Each structure stands twice: as C-alpha cells, then as structure tokens.
Amino acid sequence: xKTLRTSPLGMMLSLAIVAGTWVIPTLSFAxxxxxNDYFHTGAGARYLVRAQTALDIxxxxxxxxxxxxxxxxxxxxxxxxxxFLVDAGISPSRAKLQVAFNQLGATSVKYVVNTHWHWDHTDxxxxxxxxxxxxxxxxxxxxxxxxxxxxxxxxWTFSPVPVDARPTLLVDDEKTFDxxxxxxxxxxxxxxxxxxDLWVYFVKADTLVLGDTFWNGHFPYIDNxxxxxxxxxxxxxxxxxxxxxxxxxxxxxxGPVGNRADLIAFxxxxxxxxxxxxxxxxxxxxxxxxxxxxxxAAFDARWGGFVIGQDHFVKLVYAGL
Length: 321
Ligand SMILES: [Zn+2]
What we know:
By secondary structure, the chain is of the alpha+beta class.
C-alpha cells in the first residue's frame, strides 16, 4: 500500500492507492494548505473529483463512442471483433466504464492505445489488461511507464506501473489495424505534447483521435520535461489540420468532441501565444517579466477556463522556446 502523505493539520484531498486501485479522495476543510502537487492541487485532483460523477457518453458514427469524465477522453470503437479503445482513463471510473462498455455491446475490449504516458490516459491499463486487452503505445510511452519519472511541473514522482499495466505492443512510427470492418491508422509524428504521442485515425468513421496534442477550448499542458514543446505541438496541430476535412470528427484529449474548425482555432491560439512570448523573450525579458506582460490575455476568455490558466500556459510555452 502506498499512501500519499498530507499535512497533519489538514488537507484538501486525501487519497491512497491500495493494490493499484485508487481510493476516491475525501474532501476536508483545510486549516492550512495541503501539498501543492498533481494529486492535491493539480490536474490529477481535478480528474479524481470529476470521476466521482457520471460519465458523459457521446455516440458519434460507425460504431464510435466518446466517453468523457475519466481523466482524458476515451474513444471506443465497438463492433463484431470487440472493442478498440483510445486511452484508458483512470481506475476509479472502472465500474462506470464497464457499465458503459456493456451498453455498447457484449464484446470485450481487445485493444487499448495509449496516446501518451500521462496518468489520466493510462491509469486504467491494469484493469483493462486484466479484462483481456492488449495495451498499445509508442516506444517512449513504454519507457516512461516502466521507469520512475519525476515531473517538476507537477511536483510529483510517478513510479513504474505494474508489469500487467505495461504496453506490450509497441509502435515506433506507425501501425495499422484491420478491426471491426475498418482500417485503423496509428501514427507518431515525432515529439508533440510529449516524446511518445500517438494519434489514431478510424478510416470508415473518418474520426481522428488526437490525445493531448489537441485540447478543445482549453490551453493545453505541454510536457517539456518529457520531450514535448510548443513548436512540436504546433506541428502536430498543423499535420492534423492537413489530414482532416470539414467532415472529420476530431477527438481531443480534453474538452468536447470537435471538428477541423476547432482544431484550426486551437492551432491559431498556439501560434498567437507562441509569437507573443517569443517576441518578449527576444527583447531579453525574464520569465517573470513575460508573465507580467500577459501575452496570452487575448486568448484567456476562450481558452483559460480549465486546468491550465494563462500564466501557467505562458510558462509552458516559454520553457519550450
Ligand atoms: Zn497529457
């Protein structure tokens, strides 16, 4: 049993991992702030709270359904060969996800593609593998999941995941599946949000699942410490724009299911903030001075309402320039 230590006087959230299963955090009133880390004040805490409420189950077309509310978005193709998932969500949602999968058909989950290594996309690997699924990931995602990885930005050290939660089918650049009567194209385009991103394109449904290389309506996290950066994030967005049409369904890692116009708006926001931060950096300004200049202010009303606020996003952009 691994317990997350909290302040003896009070805490915002307390939670524990028992045999690989997250115990849902309990809220308490703090007499002093709790630890400032991913699972207490960061995105992880937010996802754990969200997972306590119902999933949003959004049917798309040609057997594709998107499930929202278990960490990152989960895309499911359900058909005669079984279920093909993009991302695994988080383990506290297991019971809700099993109910949702059963509603989509009696077949079992055969494949789970991890779009990247982050906890909110991979924590469900263990139970899905135990239920019979093969876990698919880019080689660098495998590396992060099997090594101790500290993320300064999250003030958290992730231990290697249990052997049964590790990807066993590794992708370098691309891999194609023929499953449920459609072709499924899995590709890595080099560094993006991390150094191990995969996108998944369902040909028949004309649906492109982008993981965290696309946050629809939100400033994205960029994992500069694990190979991502703003320029490569922009390149992924540009490549996705090239690959899609106005008819393509575009599934982000976070935010509502979108389309090509949403993707273009996201790319334009990335470029706009990047240009502003770069110009200030070239003037010799420090990070603190750049944050104080509010170079993302024009984008904040539309993009700043989720886990990454404008000042945080400016810091993430700056770190990659
Ligand atoms: Zn991520």
